[in-house]
Design brief:
The complex is a heterotrimer of chains A (341), B (369) and C (518). In chain A, helix 3 packs across helix 12, helix 4 runs parallel beside helix 6 and helix 12 packs across helix 14. Chain A is globular, with a radius of gyration of 22 Å. In chain A, the strands form two sheets. In chain A, strands 1-4 form a two-stranded antiparallel ribbon. In chain A, strands 2-3 form a two-stranded antiparallel sheet. Chain A is built from 14 helices and four strands. Chain A has a single domain, classed as ABC transporter involved in vitamin B12 uptake, BtuC. Chain A is an all-alpha fold and 341 residues long. Chain B is globular. Chain C is an alpha/beta fold and 518 residues long. In chain C, the strands form five sheets. In chain C, strands 6-9-10-3-11-12 form a six-stranded mixed β-sheet, sandwiched between helices. A six-stranded mixed β-sheet of chain C has the order 18-19-20-15-21-22, with helices on both faces. The longest helix of chain C has 16 residues. Chain C is globular. The two termini of chain C are 37 Å apart. Classes of the chains: A mainly alpha (341), B mainly alpha (369), C alpha/beta (518).
Chain lengths: 341, 369, 518
């Protein structure tokens, strides 16, 4: 007979949650955790490889240079995941863009100024089509973007089975251009990726479209009943992701200076992992692009650390990514159940 | 009347469309390869396009059969490709460490080890999905990402080649004039069918996938069932991993089983099992996997560049999914019957009593009586 | 109270669905500055009336006059813009966004497309303050309990009525004229309800007309000024709350005058041995039903009576372990039952047929045979399938005994009619030969013939020694079948009445209305 005194304690402070509870419920906490993780890893790197040049500011800047394309792709995926969807076509889209660009520039001799907008338009249109099918026919995003994965990888191969290296002088001069920052330099790709990040931040937090993305991810049914134009938003989100993937493809082309039908295979997983490690809930509605930046940096840092270690092989990157992914998914799980309770 | 009703019964059979597509695809080959259906006996082995379709499709059939059960519970398993790689890597690296690679006991032990690793992966997936309540796509993403790394870790980033006669049998050997892998597939499919239809497992799986809340209220311990199907799926992937590595006598941590999860899901969908869970059809999945393999073969034989394979697959995925989407059917086929109000009518009460059965349904009833 | 011109008048409202007349010639009026209760049992037409008013459904006849102008809304959005706001039972907001954003999303103040966060927060804080709420508008909505979320939903709906989206004039100004609250209290606890009522009174004082729907009679009498009673899609009457007592109200809702109800129930109940089968001690769950004690004898039929939402289903679900109780124990045959999952109760011989056949009972894709065998199979585990011969025999037996049509075990259960689906559910549990059968609204939405068959079945089962817990909206049904009648009111088991010749439906009605049994 334990029937009494269970609920009353919750009553007094039900209006203003306690400070501790609010801190735990704060959606910025996962981002802070990822940032902290990055700092700790960076500190470990400093202490271990201090004398091997790890302390050079350029090592830090190289993280942006080497992962700029991933950052752009992950920003696009962030939009999709925030809206409660998923996009598996990212890697293929990047690969396709590298092939498409290389083919147009090298084989067709089109000027870069024409090729770049064309490639971006194709990517955005691909994303739009997927969004259109997902919204209008209510097919799971997973399977639609899977079809996108097949389609764009297939189109890569249709263009050419062989890789096409780019010898265009414009491309190589762009690739080698350095933006000096005093203590080091960034590549054009890195700068573009940071601009994309800033733009995405602005769009998500300062436009109605951005807030609708969050609203749909939080509760699609409610968003509908609140009178938000949810179809347009959904399609737009996949369009953004397609656009970002194409842009990432361009950056990747710049970075690697060739088109290859097998470029960026499985990069959608890296992008999704970066987004999740960055604290965005895979169920949608919660997260920040800034977190995605830290997610990408953490993944990039893992690669650098493994390089500096020298004895470790590249596959440790995948294992470490998987372990981090797992840890963050479990943390997310515990955080969401706590909120419900 | 009887012929039409028989025809109707035939076309309404769940396997009708997958089989029809398969037959159509096979027939497409004939003009290009007139002896497509012929099977030759050379050196006591049967050769022919049909045999090779089954042979090359074997790993896919295995993975897809396991995937069918997972999808029937309303889940999905993205990690099967990684499991294929891990199993192959572990088995081959163990065999390559043996002094005598041809020793049967060593090979059996190696295979056991590989399959054990697969089971562990399945347990992990099942644990995350059933006990932790994590969405299946996300839970299995972890091994999908990390698994390839683990496989490369086992093979030390190399492609391990082995030279083991007994091991070669599974994926590349012949038995009773047929490729041995066909027998493996037959056994696995038979065991799966027996496991699901001779016991109550199939019923409980369909119940959990068909209505999770009702299943809970009827006392089904769905978490056990889910763990079981993820383990089974991983086991199937493990056997496929053995087969692939045996066929090439090598373990490639990076490329073995690459994208097989996507093909497997596609095979399940073509086979008529809904991605939402519930009713499943092992036979349909086998046909679905054969359709995919035949597609690959067909593209090859009719002389279209093989690289367009993926584009065709994409087209198949899109068409199959669109056909399964009620909304698409309503929009495309509904419009023909003058249901112009469809779009506007959505503002009308959804809760209104269901319309009387559409006339199309009334017809067969009359025939029955 | 002076009676000025009504802000809203609905006259001769007709709404038809294929084959059903949901509303026929209903009149309704709403005055500014009043809280008006819309009363009626399930299916009386309350929600249809609200949906017709707010433009969710189109109107088949009659007129709606808002502020002296004839109106007809094509969508909820139009109704909102005209000043009619609705808040539903479920909070339709985005829990992941801040309170301020939830109030303004879709109409955030922007300049050159840029959201002006500072202005948005200030406006939100002003709105919230004005309604006397003490909440931090920057906190995520999910950090507040459901009640506060409900209040935020009201704030949002008031803001929308404002129309121009600048947040001016909200809080009951010229914007929102009519506020509809459709069962906002069903998941709130007492303190939370008081918060809501405080807000409602405040809005009322500002001149907003509030239409309030609730299943809790006490709440109606606490906060409402006037009420309109509907029954079977027709208007019964309109009263000042102070003019009509609770007994009178219940009679109006159920459509029986006390006198008419004094009829004999001729059926002779068999006597029970008096052996206790099940005993519940202090079983309760916060937000669903207050702790209760209950004993069920072998072969006894216990009927649960009470209005919709009074906790009938919740009580049954706790006994079965379908919901996890906060407190209390259940013992069957002297042995305590684990209530963490339904398996414990099932193992002890308890069976539960949910009122939601489609969502909680049947697996629509499976066949009749598979659905019937499911409970037995679940109990046996997957390794021991029911032998095919035994299975087919059992299924055939119950299809025949319950007269399930079509009598085809291969038919997909989703295609059966409601009554036959109910019989499939019954068959599923009868096969397991339970000691206690819980039937939640087994006769709802099925035709008269099937209804009578199911009632006969209950009688014969109990005569054979099976205990039955029977939940039905119709009191006659409960009275005819039950040895004991448990009366629920406002999520509390208020009385256990032993059935006898002197017990009539009106006695039970009195108990439901007053919460006491003499």
């Amino acid at each position: 007979m334990t029937t009494t005194t269970q609920s009353p304690q919750a009553a007094p402070d039900s209006r203003t949650p306690s400070r501790a509870a609010r801190l735990l419920a704060d959606r910025r906490l996962p981002v802070a955790a990822t940032a902290l993780l990055f700092l700790v890893m960076y500190g470990v790197g400093l202490s271990r490889y201090q004398f091997y040049g790890f302390a050079e500011p350029q090592v830090f800047l190289n993280l942006f240079i080497d992962n700029g394309y991933l950052l752009v792709a992950a920003v696009g995926v962030t939009f999709v995941i925030l809206s409660g969807g998923i996009d598996l076509s990212v890697g293929s889209m990047i690969g396709f863009t590298t092939m498409f660009t290389a083919w147009l520039v090298e084989r067709q001799g089109l000027p870069l100024a024409l090729v770049i907008p064309l490639a971006l338009a194709v990517g955005a249109f691909g994303g739009f089509l997927m969004g259109y099918v997902i919204h209008n026919f209510e097919i799971q995003p997973f399977i639609v973007t899977l079809a996108g994965l097949f389609l764009f990888r297939g189109l890569c191969l249709v263009i050419s089975k062989e890789s096409i290296s780019i010898s265009d002088s414009g491309v190589s001069s762009m690739a080698q251009a350095q933006v000096s920052l005093g203590m080091g330099f960034l590549s054009i790709g890195a700068v573009v990726s940071l601009v994309v990040l800033a733009l995405a931040f602005y769009v998500l937090h300062y436009t109605r479209f951005g807030r609708r993305v969050y609203a749909i991810g939080g509760n699609e049914q409610s968003a509908l009943l609140m009178g938000l134009p949810q179809g347009g938003t959904k399609i737009a989100v996949y369009t953004v992701s397609g656009f970002c993937s194409a842009l990432a493809g361009l950056l990747f082309t710049l970075y690697i200076q060739s088109g290859d039908p097998l470029h960026a295979t499985g990069m959608e997983l890296d992008a999704i992992a970066a987004v999740v490690i960055g604290g965005t809930l895979l169920t949608g509605g919660s997260g920040y692009v800034l977190g995605t930046l830290f997610g990408v940096l953490v993944l990039g840092l893992i690669k650098s650390l493994i390089q500096f270690e020298g004895t470790l092989s590249s596959w440790w990157t995948k294992i470490a990514t998987g372990v981090l992914l797992c840890a963050f998914i479990l943390i997310q799980r515990f955080m969401t159940t706590r909120k419900k309770a | 009347m009887t012929t039409t009703s028989r025809w109707r019964a035939l076309t309404h059979h769940q396997l009708f469309w997958p089989v029809a597509v398969l037959i159509l695809l096979l027939l497409v080959n004939v003009p290009f390869t007139p002896d497509f259906f012929s099977v030759k006996m050379t050196d006591g082995h049967l050769y022919g396009s049909l045999v090779s379709i089954v042979l090359f499709g074997s790993p896919l059939i295995l993975v897809a059969v396991g995937m069918t059960l997972v999808i029937a519970t309303g889940g999905i398993d993205l990690s099967v490709g990684a499991v294929v790689a891990i199993t192959g890597a572990l088995t081959c690296s163990y065999i390559s460490d043996q002094a005598d690679q041809g020793a049967l006991s060593g090979v059996l032990l190696a295979m056991g080890l590989g399959l054990l690793a697969a089971v562990v992966c399945g347990l992990w997936n099942g644990f995350l999905v059933a006990r932790m309540g994590i969405q299946p796509i996300i839970a299995t993403l972890i091994i999908m990402v990390a698994g390839r790394g683990v496989a490369q870790f086992i093979t030390d980033g190399q492609i391990i080649t082995i030279n083991s006669e007994p091991y070669k049998l599974i994926g590349g050997g012949y038995w009773l004039t047929l490729p041995f892998s066909i027998f493996v597939v037959a056994v696995v499919v038979a065991v799966t069918v027996a496991l699901t239809r001779r016991t109550a497992l199939g019923l409980l799986v369909e119940s959990v996938g068909g209505n999770a809340e009702a299943s809970r209220l009827v006392g089904i311990r769905s978490s056990r069932i889910k763990i079981m199907v993820y383990v089974f799926c991983a086991l199937c992937a493990g056997i496929a991993g053995l087969m692939i590595s045996s066929n090439t006598s090598a373990a490639d941590g990076n490329n073995a089983g690459l994208w097989i999860e996507l093909d497997a899901i596609l095979a399940v969908v073509i086979g008529g099992t809904s991605l939402l869970g519930g009713r499943f059809s092992i036979g349909g999945t086998v046909v679905g996997a054969l359709v995919i393999q035949t597609l690959t073969t067909t593209i090859y034989t009719i002389g279209v560049p093989t690289q367009t394979n993926l584009v065709f697959k994409a087209a198949v995925v899109i068409v199959v999914c669109l056909l399964q989407s009620p909304k698409f059917r309503a929009k495309v086929f509904g419009a023909k019957f003058g249901a112009r109000f469809g779009a506007r009518g959505s503002a009308r009460p959804a809760a209104a009593p269901a319309d009387p059965a559409p006339p199309a349904d009334a017809a067969p009833k009359m025939e029955v009586s | 109270m002076a009676e000025p011109r009504p802000v809203l008048e609905m006259a001769g409202i007709v709404k038809e669905f294929p084959g059903v007349r949901a509303l026929s010639d209903v009149d309704f009026r709403l005055f500014p500055g009043e809280i008006h209760a819309l009363m009626g049992e399930n299916g009386a037409g309350k929600s249809t009336l609200i949906k017709v008013l707010t433009g969710v459904y189109s109107l088949d006849g009659g007129t709606i006059t808002l502020d002296g102008e004839s109106v007809r809304f094509a969508s909820p959005l139009q109704a909102q813009q005209a000043g009619i706001s609705t808040v539903y039972q479920e909070v339709n907001l985005c829990p992941n966004l801040s309170v301020a954003e939830n109030i303004f999303i879709g109409r955030e103040p922007t300049r050159m497309g840029r959201i002006q966060w500072k202005r948005l927060r200030q406006e939100a804080a002003r709105l919230v303050d004005r309604l006397g709420l003490d909440i931090d508008v920057t906190a995520p909505l999910s950090s507040y309990p459901l009640a506060v979320q409900q209040l935020v939903a009201i704030v949002r709906s008031l803001g929308i009525g404002d129309g121009d989206g600048d947040g001016e004039g909200a809080g009951g100004g010229p914007g929102t004229k009519v506020l509809i609250l459709d069962e906002p209290t069903s998941s709130l606890d007492r303190d939370e309800v008081l918060q809501l009522f405080a807000l409602m009174r405040r809005l009322k004082d500002e001149g907003v007309a509030i239409l309030f729907v609730s299943h809790f009679l006490d709440q109606i009498y606490e906060v409402c000024d006037r009420m309109t009673v509907l029954r079977n899609g027709t208007l019964v009457s309109e009263h000042l709350v102070s003019d009509l007592d609770q007994v009178g109200l219940v009679q109006l809702m159920l459509g029986k005058a006390m006198g008419q109800l004094e009829e004999l129930h001729e059926h002779q109940l068999h006597s029970t041995a008096g052996e206790t089968l099940l005993k519940a001690d202090g079983l309760g769950r916060t937000g669903s039903i207050a702790p209760f004690d209950l004993e069920i004898d072998k072969g006894e039929v216990i009927g649960l009576a009470g209005l919709l939402g009074s906790g009938r289903t919740e009580l049954a679900r706790l006994l079965f372990g379908a919901d996890h109780p906060d407190s209390g124990t259940v013992t069957v045959d002297g042995k305590q039952v684990s209530l963490s999952a339904p398996n414990g109760a099932i193992g002890a011989g308890v069976a539960f047929c949910s009122e939601n056949r489609k969502t909680e009972g049947l697996v629509p894709d499976l066949t009749v045979r598979e659905n019937i065998i499911l409970a037995l199979q679940a109990a046996r585990g997957w390794t021991r399938p029911v032998p095919a011969a035994q299975r087919d025999e059992l299924v055939a037996k119950y299809i025949k005994a319950l007269d399930i049509r079509p009598a085809n075990p291969e038919a997909r259960v989703g295609q059966l009619s409601g009554g036959n689906q109910q019989k499939v559910l019954l068959a599923r549990w009868l096969i397991t030969q339970p000691k206690l059968l819980i039937l939640d609204e087994p006769t709802r939405g099925i035709d008269i013939g099937a209804k009578a068959e199911i009632q006969k079945l209950v009688v014969s089962l109990s005569e054979d020694g099976m205990s039955v817990l029977y939940i039905a909206a119709e009191l006659e049904e409960v009275l005819r079948l039950s040895h004991t009648i448990g009366v629920l009111r406002d999520r509390r088991l208020v009385a256990r009445i032993t059935n006898g010749p002197e017990i009539t439906t009106s006695k039970i009605l009195e108990t439901i209305a007053s919460g006491e049994h003499q």
